[in-house]
Q: What sequence folds into this?
């Protein structure tokens, strides 16, 4: 089972680096949103500082959604998914491996880029560390939930919109606690440590539930 | 041809009395009955050839046997012989479908290495030799011709040993030399006590084969 997990992990990372599209698109989109925001809102430094964590989180969410529908698409189209389903490796392991690759190629690089791009939004320097921590943690849940949406819509040609609509409600709690954990004392009392724990709890719950749910969705589609 | 280092006799002892049979099988796809009242038996050491016009249900039957679809009626029995009793038929199956299950941005060798890793260890060099891919090992799969891609897909058969082979039009795109390679591989598999169920329009030179003609069933 571990060999199957590492096989998928190394294959998909190799593909992501060779094809370039996935990581590049996510970071490019993220950059575009963050660069355009201050231009659209005007040069009000205080306003920008106040909305910076929220704006970065929205941009992260949209960028992660952008690549979500393609999670199982190529494996489905070229027949690999069927062979994986037939093998003695549980589909849950396949799901976990695919979600890990999605996180490594979208959530993680974006979470690292966010504090840097935060300077464009006049992000408070004291918030860099909490923001990065919350984003690295929260994006794990985003990728796991994205795998669920992608698994449900795997056979649909234009599943992109449906994936977004399906997992949007599931992204709301990640978003709320993510922004709170990144905002420090901006809204009054500093609750970032407590909210980070809630965020971790959401990640753990997603880690337990989504592999089984995604695998069940993939199985029912193939039947 | 003699350089094929593909050995499938290892499981011969385990599969001597292995059998797959279906009684009164029916398959439904999108509200339409593809076939009904289908009976078949596939015995260890023999190949069952599926014949019939397009749309007769050859692929559907293969998917049904693999466990990728449920029969609408009838029963499918897998006599495991001495294979572990708690395993699904699908785990003992090599399913070669229309798609080759290869990644275009990986080289021939990387593709096989991935499946070897995923399926729990296999003979990559032997598989490349069995389908005459040794010279192409370093090439990215997107540079291969359709026939070469098919060969790469078929190389999975020699990569990991599985007692049951379900082949859906395995010869599509293959030249005569590659068809011969495939036939050799299939003969070796049957001699080792394996089962092959294949849909094909070409007469492969394989002696121990039975024919299931879809034109003759309701």
A:
């Amino acid at each position: 089972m571990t060999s199957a997990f590492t096989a998928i992990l190394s294959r998909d990372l190799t593909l992501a680096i060779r094809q370039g599209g996935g990581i590049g698109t996510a970071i490019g989109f993220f950059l575009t949103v963050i660069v355009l925001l201050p231009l659209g809102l005007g040069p009000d430094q205080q306003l920008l500082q106040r909305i910076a964590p929220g704006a970065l989180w929205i941009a992260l969410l949209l960028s992660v959604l952008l690549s979500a529908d393609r999670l199982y698409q190529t494996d489905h189209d070229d027949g690999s998914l069927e062979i994986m389903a037939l093998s003695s490796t549980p589909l849950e392991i396949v799901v976990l491996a695919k979600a890990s690759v999605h996180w490594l190629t979208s959530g993680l690089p974006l979470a690292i880029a966010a504090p840097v791009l935060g300077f464009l939004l006049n992000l408070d320097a004291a918030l860099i560390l909490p923001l990065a921590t919350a984003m690295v943690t929260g994006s794990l849940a985003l990728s796991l939930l994205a795998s669920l949406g992608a698994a449900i819509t795997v056979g649909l040609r234009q599943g992109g919109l449906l994936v977004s609509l399906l997992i949007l409600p599931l992204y709301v709690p990640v978003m709320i606690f993510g922004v709170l954990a990144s905002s420090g004392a901006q809204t009054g009392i500093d609750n970032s440590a407590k909210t980070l724990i809630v965020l971790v709890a959401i990640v753990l719950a997603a880690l337990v539930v989504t592999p089984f749910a995604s695998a069940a969705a993939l199985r029912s589609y193939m039947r | 041809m003699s350089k094929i280092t593909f050995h499938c006799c290892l499981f011969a002892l385990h599969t001597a009395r292995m059998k797959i049979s279906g009684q009164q099988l029916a398959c439904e796809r999108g509200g339409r009955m593809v076939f009904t009242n289908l009976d078949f038996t596939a015995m260890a050491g023999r190949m069952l050839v599926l014949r019939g016009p397009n749309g007769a249900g050859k692929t559907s039957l293969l998917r049904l046997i693999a466990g990728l679809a449920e029969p609408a009626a009838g029963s499918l029995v897998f006599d495991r012989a001495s294979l572990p009793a708690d395993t699904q038929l699908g785990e003992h199956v090599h399913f070669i479908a229309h798609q080759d299950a290869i990644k275009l941005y990986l080289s021939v060798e990387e593709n096989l290495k991935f499946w070897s890793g995923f399926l729990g260890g296999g003979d990559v060099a032997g598989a490349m030799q069995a389908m005459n891919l040794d010279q192409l090992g370093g090439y990215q799969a997107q540079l291969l011709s359709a026939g070469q891609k098919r060969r790469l897909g078929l190389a999975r058969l020699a990569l990991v040993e599985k007692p049951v082979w379900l082949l859906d039009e395995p010869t599509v795109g293959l030249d005569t030399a590659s068809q011969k390679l495939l036939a050799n591989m299939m003969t070796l598999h049957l001699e080792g006590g394996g089962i092959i169920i294949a849909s094909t329009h070409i007469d492969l030179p394989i002696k121990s084969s039975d024919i299931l003609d879809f034109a003759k069933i309701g």
In short: The first strand of chain B starts at residue 19 and ends at 29. Residues 19 and 79 of chain B are 5 Å apart (CA to CA). The longest helix of chain B spans residues 176-191. Chain B has one domain: 12-82+89-216.
